[in-house]
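2024-03-11 09:14:02 INFO worker-7 job=invfold-0412 stage=load source=structure_tokens
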């Protein structure tokens, strides 16, 4: 499993494994396979961001992650890195927003 760096208040690293996916499912109360990655709400997006970053900072919350993005980056750039990290977790090949069938449809850049 790879780490995907993103510059926010400092360099932070996305990592999506079973623990991160479990956090997403518990927080959103549904299976990640049921989430339409092309039509996520900002709340769902923040949960995905948080779940990939919390391994380095246990004090993070989805709300704090939204503030970090707003203050230090932009949504498009951060989501691009997040989608690459999710795609890698599922062994996919090309980057970009994942398909409508959840993270398993995500694709990683070659």
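2024-03-11 09:14:09 INFO worker-7 stage=emit residues=110
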């Amino acid at each position: 499993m790879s780490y995907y760096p993103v510059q926010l208040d400092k360099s932070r690293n996305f990592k999506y494994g079973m623990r991160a996916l479990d956090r997403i499912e518990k927080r959103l109360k549904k299976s990640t396979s049921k989430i339409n990655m092309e039509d996520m709400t900002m709340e769902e997006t923040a949960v995905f961001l948080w779940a990939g970053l919390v391994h380095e900072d246990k004090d993070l919350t989805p709300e704090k992650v939204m503030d970090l993005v707003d203050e230090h980056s932009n949504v498009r750039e951060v989501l691009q890195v997040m989608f690459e990290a999710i795609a890698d977790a599922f062994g996919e090949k090309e980057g970009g927003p994942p398909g409508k069938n959840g993270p398993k449809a995500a694709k990683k850049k070659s």
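2024-03-11 09:14:09 INFO worker-7 stage=report msg="The chain has four helices and two strands."
2024-03-11 09:14:10 INFO worker-7 job finished
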